[in-house]
Design a protein that fits this description.
GO terms for molecular function: abscisic acid binding; protein phosphatase inhibitor activity; signaling receptor activity. The chain has helices at about 15-20, 40-45, 120-155, and strands at about 1-5, 20-25, 25-35, 65-70, 75-80, 90-100, 105-115. By secondary structure, it is α+β, with helices and mostly antiparallel strands. The strands form 2 sheets. Strands 3-7-6-5-4 form a 5-stranded antiparallel sheet. Strands 1-2 form a two-stranded antiparallel sheet.
């Protein structure tokens, strides 16, 4: 097993701790970062819907999840894809939310997944990165719409 750290996250010790993964010889890992123009509490209200992670993870059919709070980090969520006929064998991800004075919230999702037979690590990471990026863009749209609706209600 090899530990994989993401250099762009190494300046934040909390993020680095959650986004350092043990990677086996037939696995790959990556991280995707999304800025969201909504308060962290609004983003968390979407992410914490464990009964319906499909609200923003459109490609997810079933998953196991856990969460906890950690210091300056509001929360993190860990997902594992279970069962099904798909290319995401042994998929495990960690999603963290960080306050940002510039955008509101920065969401980081990192993952480890088995490389399917006949695929390279690069092909697998490219494929999964697209899915994760789509999911995080969906999360951004939902959270930003929710934040805008909340602002409208408060100004009435």
């Amino acid at each position: 097993m090899v530990q994989k750290r993401f250099p762009s996250l190494s300046c934040d010790a909390t993020a680095a701790r959650f986004h350092t993964h043990e990677v086996g010889p037939n696995q790959c890992c990556s991280a995707v970062i999304q800025e969201i123009s909504a308060p962290i509490s609004t983003v968390w209200s979407v992410v914490r819907r464990f009964d319906n992670p499909q609200a923003y993870k459109h490609f997810l059919k079933a998953a196991a999840s856990s969460t906890e709070t950690a210091g300056t980090l509001v929360a993190y969520v860990s997902f594992s894809v279970v069962g099904g006929d798909h290319r995401l064998s042994n998929y495990r991800s960690v999603t963290t939310l960080h306050s940002s004075p510039v955008s509101g919230t920065v969401v980081v999702e990192s993952y480890v997944v088995d490389v399917p037979p006949g695929n390279t690590k690069e092909e697998t990471c490219d494929f999964v990165d697209v899915i994760v990026r789509c999911n995080l863009q969906s999360l951004a749209k939902i959270a930003e719409l929710s934040a805008a609706e909340g602002s409208k209600k408060m100004s009435m």
